[in-house]
């Protein structure tokens, strides 16, 4: 899977402004990537200015067109490109540390949103635009199209204003709740990351990165929470998802295997048969 955040930070093909690890970028589709797997260890906003694209979480598709906006949690997604029109979006990548520092600085305002016991939102959150967000998108587009770089302190302050708007406007409560959840203890974050990303072809080092842990700490914390190894847990979750999709959809078995986290059809068939004592096709026929 493509490390989207790392790729865009190092690429010279896009207009961008970086303030420490906060990345503002004008993304234009330069390749015919019809379908692709991407992951990012930073959360990000997507403000679509032209074209059409789809983000897919494990359970839902999010199609966006010009004027639409998304917030994508750190983790993995499948994306699908439509080529009726050139796709362009303004994107802002926000590391966890920036969000934590913001919440600490503006604790009184952020605290107006009571943190729920569990974040049950999907890996992608659709954003309803308000007057402030629309003005912010226009100003960001102007900054990125300017021949000279804007003052970075000004850009930093403008982004903090955007976050303040999210925490104070009730229509953004879902997103505010997620941002607050980033301050949870590591065990709660680990569970959230794993439950929303188990179906993607990430290795354990990438899962550890998403949880802001070393690999050894990730394995130790995972064992304490789930009482099994990451490898066994991932295999079972992926096979259970595949079984569900075989029952409830008419997608080809090989596609279901891929969408459940198996890169190779042979590996999917072998693992499925080992758990269910029948092939995916036989399972579908008997369901």
UniProtKB/TrEMBL annotation:
Any one Pfam family here would be ExsA_N
> Which molecular-function annotation in GO is an example for this chain?
sequence-specific DNA binding
Every HTH araC/xylS-type domain range: 188-286
UniProt xrefs under InterPro entries: ExsA-like_N (IPR054015), Homeodomain-like_sf (IPR009057), HTH_AraC (IPR018060)
The record's section on SUPFAM superfamilies has: Homeodomain-like
Alphabetical UniProt keywords: DNA-binding, Transcription, Transcription regulation
What's the protein called, per UniProt?
Helix-turn-helix domain-containing protein
Its taxonomic placement starts with: Bacteria, Pseudomonadati, Bacteroidota, Cytophagia, Cytophagales
